[in-house]
Amino acid sequence: MAKPKEIMIYGMTRSEYVAQLRDSLPKSQTIDKEHITRKWLNIPYTNLPNSQLLDIYLPKTGGGPFPVVIYIHGGGFILGSKDGKSSAVALNGLDRGYAVVIINYTLSLDAAFPTQIHEVKAAIRWVKSNAKDYQIDSSRIGLMGASAGAHLAALAGTSSAVGELEDKRLGHPEMDSTVQAVVVDFTPVNFATVNEQLIRLGREIPQGLDAPQYSSALYLGDLMENVPEVVQQTNPETYISPLSPPFFIQHGTEHYILPYDQSVHFAEKLVKSIGVSKVKLSLLEGVGGGDDPNYFTPEHIKREYDFLDRFLK
């Protein structure tokens, strides 16, 4: 993994900014998984000595092979883990007959793009290569993510044929990283348009140490105005094609950092390429982000798995 280049963010060097940001980040709550009887935890999914890890969960009963959801956690690329409380959303799939794989990836405090998408695709290849050992059907894979995890899920979904966004040296080069469906919640799509969309909606642009225009520089490798080509490379819309998988896209209209226009425009572009029957946009009126108790309700989670059922069962 290449050492991130030293840049200036928020009036500080990258190293100084990261040190202050680490100190300011909240501790995430961990998920309760003791009640899940069939599970394998902390499995390395690349061939690197410091490989990122994944967890595998299976439904309580049944011999499979099960369709699988690979969940990618959120956290603005700067915090979060597979053990975080938000992963509970994915574990709802166990009662719907899905295997669930939850992955970690390198946070942008430690590395910039394309490290994260390389790891996500390596995890997909690992799941395909090891599917039989865990009663998983490698031909029925869905991606799911929220916030930064949604961005990575969307990017992996649309760019499966893009060689520069895949590092097969991480393992299982004989496998591809195609998936059959993607579910994303409040996803950042085009970093370049977030602030103008917030202004159009009459919202204030967030300020402060962890404001997206600063923290996103860690993921992009520099402030976005300095790397327009990287902003384009990280945009899932760049790679949309008729071969893109079906997408369920959900977004709260009152999300204070990520304007729902991000999801609206993404859905419109997908519809033009893969058709309206394969794209579902769910705008939650008056609802904020994942910390809003009205976001991940049983009804909204059910919609996501109902969509996955259409394409994975």
TrEMBL record:
Q: What is its EC number?
A: 3.1.1.-
Annotated Gene3D superfamilies: alpha/beta hydrolase (3.40.50.1820)
What Pfam families is this protein classified in? BD-FAE
Keywords carried by this UniProt record: Hydrolase
Among the GO molecular function terms of this UniProt record, one is: hydrolase activity
Report if keyword Hydrolase is assigned: yes
Q: What residue ranges carry the coiled-coil annotation?
A: none
PANTHER family in the cross-refs: AB HYDROLASE SUPERFAMILY PROTEIN C4A8.06C, ALPHA_BETA HYDROLASE
Recorded protein name is Acetyl esterase
Q: Which organism is it from?
A: Halalkalibacter krulwichiae
Q: Which gene encodes it?
A: aes
